[in-house]
């Protein structure tokens, strides 16, 4: 009986269902695969996110790159100022950066808001320089001469007295409108500056008057103020004072050997003389003037019209890169 019971218990035990370990292992494997797939999906999602971050980073780089370009342009302008201060000209400044004719092409794809920022930067540069194009052609060191500048350029709107800017201050030898089409004398001066009114304005801005005007200048040059005379080099202001131009530089007629008119005009010491013959090569100006006839091959840039008493009302100037322009004084 005991033997039979033992056999029965053994058989009963053997008859119990046995767990399918192979199936369990397969299920575990499947679960692992699922988790692995999920991990892959998460990894892929992370990769997408990372890729998106890379794209955004690249997008951030684009405006930064633009900033670098404009920063380089600012450096070029600063370098040009330094070049003037050192009296070595602008030969070392890259033409590609300074050539105003290239600027529209360079900026054609730049967003309007970025261009607005650039305009502000350019205004800051030109305001410091005193000349609308951001470069000086005399009184070249802005640190030594912070409130007066000699600005080369051209204009085709006649006259020097209280002329409003008419071409958006795009004149100047390096300006967007270098030829001066539609420009007045005021378009050569930066915002916040004006064509110097005359002798008192000049000496107020520079105690030494015209001394220093040739710093950074390429002779021969004449830089006019709004000062004229009633004739015979007698500097004056008022409705009747429209005879000749008076300014600084080394081109024109030095009348200071006459102590009377020297005192009346000081510190200005150069005049255009009749019909600007002191600034031209074709009006039979005498040897006592440093006229353009003493510079063979130089074209006439100054034109004062045909009325020998009203040069200040009729003067225009071509050849923006030659023979000067105007004196600009800080407002």
Portion in strands? 5-15%
Question: What is the approximate shape?
Answer: globular
Radius of gyration: 39 Å
Taking the sheet with the most strands, its summary is: 8 strands, mixed
Helix share of residues? 25-40%
Number of domains: 2
What's the order of the H and E elements? HHHHHEEHEEEEEHEEEHEE
- Averaged pLDDT, please? 76
Span from first to last CA?
A: 130 Å
Number of strands: 12
Low-confidence stretches: 1-107, 118-122
Classify the secondary structure makeup into a structural class.
alpha+beta
Helical stretch count? 8
Which helices and strands, and how do they pair?
Elements lengths: L1 H14 L5 H65 L9 H4 L4 H4 L5 H18 L18 E5 L40 E3 L3 H7 L15 E4 L3 E2 L5 E2 L9 E4 L2 E3 L4 H7 L4 E2 L17 E2 L11 E2 L7 H4 L1 E2 L5 E8 L1
Parallel strand pairs: 3-12
Antiparallel strand pairs: 1-12, 2-12, 3-6, 4-5, 6-8, 7-8, 7-9, 10-11
Helix pairs in contact: 2-5
In short:
By secondary structure, this protein is α+β, with helices and mostly antiparallel strands. It is 37% helix and 12% strand. The chain has helices at residues 2-15, 21-85, 95-98, 103-106, 112-129, 199-205, 259-265, 311-314, and strands spanning 148-152, 193-195, 221-224, 228-229, 235-236, 246-249, 252-254, 270-271, 289-290, 302-303, 316-317, 323-330.
Describe this structure in words.
This protein has helices at 2-15, 21-85, 95-98, 103-106, 112-129, 199-205, 259-265, 311-314; strands spanning 148-152, 193-195, 221-224, 228-229, 235-236, 246-249, 252-254, 270-271, 289-290, 302-303, 316-317, 323-330. By secondary structure, it is α+β, with helices and mostly antiparallel strands. It folds into two domains: 40-129, no CATH class; 148-330, no CATH class. Strand 4 and strand 5 (235-236) form a beta hairpin. Helix 2 runs parallel beside helix 5 (112-129). It is globular. The relative contact order is 0.11. The model is unreliable at 1-107 and 118-122 (pLDDT under 50).
């Amino acid at each position: 009986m005991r033997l039979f019971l033992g056999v029965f218990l053994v058989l009963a035990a053997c008859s119990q269902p046995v767990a399918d370990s192979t199936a369990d292992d397969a299920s575990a494997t499947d679960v692992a695969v699922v988790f692995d797939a999920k991990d892959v999906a998460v990894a892929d999602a992370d990769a997408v996110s990372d890729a998106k971050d890379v794209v955004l980073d690249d997008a951030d780089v684009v405006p930064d790159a633009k900033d670098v370009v404009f920063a380089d342009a600012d450096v070029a302008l600063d370098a040009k100022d330094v070049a003037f201060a050192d009296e070595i000209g602008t030969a070392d400044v890259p033409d590609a950066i300074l050539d105003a004719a290239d600027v529209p092409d360079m900026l054609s794809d730049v967003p309007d808001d970025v261009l607005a920022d650039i305009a502000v930067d350019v205004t800051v540069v030109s305001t410091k320089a005193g000349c609308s194009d951001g470069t000086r052609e005399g009184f070249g060191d802005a640190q030594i001469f912070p409130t007066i500048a000699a600005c080369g350029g051209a204009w085709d709107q006649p006259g020097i007295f209280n002329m409003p800017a008419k071409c958006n201050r795009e004149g100047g030898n390096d300006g967007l409108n270098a030829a001066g089409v539609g420009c007045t004398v005021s378009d050569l001066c930066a915002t916040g500056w004006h064509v110097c009114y005359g002798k008192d304005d000049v000496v107020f801005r520079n105690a030494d008057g015209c001394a220093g005007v040739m710093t950074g200048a390429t002779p021969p040059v004449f830089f006019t103020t709004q000062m004229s005379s009633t004739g015979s080099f007698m500097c004056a202001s008022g409705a009747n004072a429209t005879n000749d131009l008076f300014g600084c530089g080394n081109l024109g007629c030095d009348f200071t050997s006459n102590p009377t008119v020297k005192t009346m005009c000081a510190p200005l010491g150069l005049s255009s003389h009749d019909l600007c013959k002191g600034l031209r090569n074709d009006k039979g100006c005498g040897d006592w003037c440093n006229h353009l006839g003493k510079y063979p091959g130089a074209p006439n840039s100054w034109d004062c019209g045909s009325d020998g008493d009203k040069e200040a009302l009729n003067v225009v100037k071509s050849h923006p890169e030659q023979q000067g322009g105007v004196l600009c004084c800080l407002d």
